[in-house]
Write the structure tokens for this entry.
Amino acid sequence: MIGIGIIGAGDFGVAHARAIKEVHGLQLVASCRGNNDALAGFTAEHGGRGYTDWRKLLDDKDVDAVLIASPHHLHAEMAIGAAKAGKHIMLEKPMAPTAAACDAINAAVAAGGVKLMVAHLMHFALPCMAARQMLEEGSLGRPLIGSSWIIKLWMEHNRRDWHLRKATGGGMLLTAGIHALDRLVWLMDDDVVSVSAMLGARFHDQEADDTALLGLRFAAGGLGQVQSVGYRTGATSYAMDLACEQGTLRIDMDRGTMLGRDTVWTDLPGSFEPNWMHSALVREWTAMGDAIADDKPVPVDGAYGRKIIGIIEAAFASNETRREHEIAGER
């Protein structure tokens, strides 16, 4: 049995705990949160010991692997600490707010000889998996143009002050828009070589962005765009279009994946599931458990997590200079 410790037992920690419970070979043995009352409620529902200090959780001999679901600016310190303690790591996205912090995490993981998986959930969501399988079969040819977006309510019930500040890795792009970016980069299956971007707070009085529009150039000539919009009020749109050499794909998280050919859309069988997020979390943890138990590579590693952050850093730089920015180290 692989003992799991959750560092950051908040709202999404709850979602992870529910998924862990369904995965054979995993057991939640410890959780950490600064608020004693909230921590007590979490452990009462999900079991395991409670800690208010994440370092104490890392000292727990029954913890073999940790989930880090803390504020973004704490990811690097906690992940490096976990690696030094010999704990395998599931690290919620974003991997860290900067590429330099990602590099430090990856160095610590290599030195510690532990597994690190960055929790980019789209890789385990059924509509995206169906699209990836269709692309790998080859009948659509290469994807050439992609557009991916997440347009949603920003001030949700779990929004905190750190989400609103740049210094703590806040903003819609790093918090939620990163899903739209990750999904596009993964399905295009190519490196991004440059980014042009416009960001700002258009709906809320905050320092960090609630809106971002990104234009991407890929190494093989493909083009992409990403919309990350955290509105004040509206209705959620969470989808993407991919135009390939021999057809088109449309992913809609609320209805599944569709194939477009000869001006007709058809549903891809088995590409929709009602509670896709929970099912994706179960698949994510199953993959993590298998990687630990069988000493296999993780599906989403630190190099990939760092790549996504490099793109976002270039987007921030492009917004400041109002010019297209190349991705450092990608060429």
The chain has a mean pLDDT of 97. DSSP finds nine helices and 15 strands in the chain.
